[in-house]
Amino acid sequence: MTHLLPGETLEDLDRNGLKIIQKEKGFRFGVDAVLLSDFAKVKKRDHVMDLCTGTGIIPILLFGKTEAEEIMGLEIQDEFVQMAKRSLALNEIEKKVRILHGDLKDIDLLKGLPKFNVVTVNPPYKKENSGIINEKDALTIARHEVSLNLEDVVRAAQLILKDNGRFYMIHRPERLADIMTLLRKYKIEPKRIRMVYPNTKKPPTMVLVEGLRGGGEFLKVEAPLFVYDDEGNYSDEIRRIYGDDRR
User: Fold this and answer.
1) 75 and 54 in contact (C-beta within 8 Å)?
2) N or C terminus of the chain: which is more exposed, having fewer CB within 10 Å?
3) Environment class of residue 67 by beta-carbon count within 10 Å: exposed (0-12), middle (13-18) or buried (19+)?
4) What gap in Å lies between CA 47 and CA 67, rounded to an integer?
5) What pTM, to 2 d.p., does this model score?
6) pLDDT of residue 100
7) Residues of the chain with pLDDT under 50
8) Cβ neighbours of residue 38 under 8 Å, at least 6 residues apart?
9) How much is the pLDDT for 134?
């Protein structure tokens, strides 16, 4: 039996009995990880890599909703790696899901990996030097471009994707121009985007992006996704994504 360490909690993911170990305080997964795992199209027998995997939430969610052959996660912070591995052991899914401790800027590491059908990433959103940061703080590294930037992420995806492999990312709408430019630079053609809005009265706070390595030019802009309806309840689609009857 995998035991929790002091200051940790066990969260039920409401998906096939899967659970994840998290910190009581500090970095915890949010709706962005859940939305990305739903947006990503993972086919039967696909090999999947999740970059910046943190505590392994996206690999665990993808295990619960897809028939992927293998799912891997790459994370630079050893504390998160060890927590993710304990979650895998708790769920008894180590044969299908693996977590690697490494830096996605390590080109030799990336070239030594197999090629993947799908790469997902929920990267740090905040640009370097945006606000007061502490480079040793795990929460800062998870949210700010301290140890990597957006170009590092796209370059890593390009290196490990198979030809016609699919790339999925969630990010902030204000970075959309940067995202489109970098995807084209690294030969990952933008194919699909979807804006995520808190409700119908507010501007979008997240954007979901799909790219195809070596794909042809054609971009589909999907219908907006609203987290809440106008009465302040979770939207029908959010309840579908979470697989529950939350209000």
Assistant:
1) yes
2) N
3) exposed
4) 10
5) 0.90
6) 97
7) 1, 130-136, 138-145, 247
8) 65, 241
9) 45
Q: Which residues are CB-neighbours of 103 under 8 A, at least 6 positions away? A: 76, 109, 147, 148
Letter for the amino acid at 55? T
DSSP secondary structure code for residue 215 in this structure? P
CA 7 to chain CA centroid, nearest Å: 24
Cα–Cα distance measured from residue 3 to residue 191, given in angstroms and rounded to the nearest whole number: 43
Query: Which residues are within 8 A (CB) of 44 and not within 5 positions of it... i.e. 6 or more apart?
Result: 66, 67, 68, 69
Tokens of 33: 């990880």
Distance from C-alpha of 143 to C-alpha of 128, rounded to nearest angstrom: 10
Joined tokens for residue 93: 């899914």
CA angle 203/206/210 to nearest 5° reads 130
CA distances to 85, 110, 181, 213 from 190, rounded to whole Å, are 33, 22, 10, 9
**CATH architecture observed for domain 8-242:** 3-Layer(aba) Sandwich (3.40)
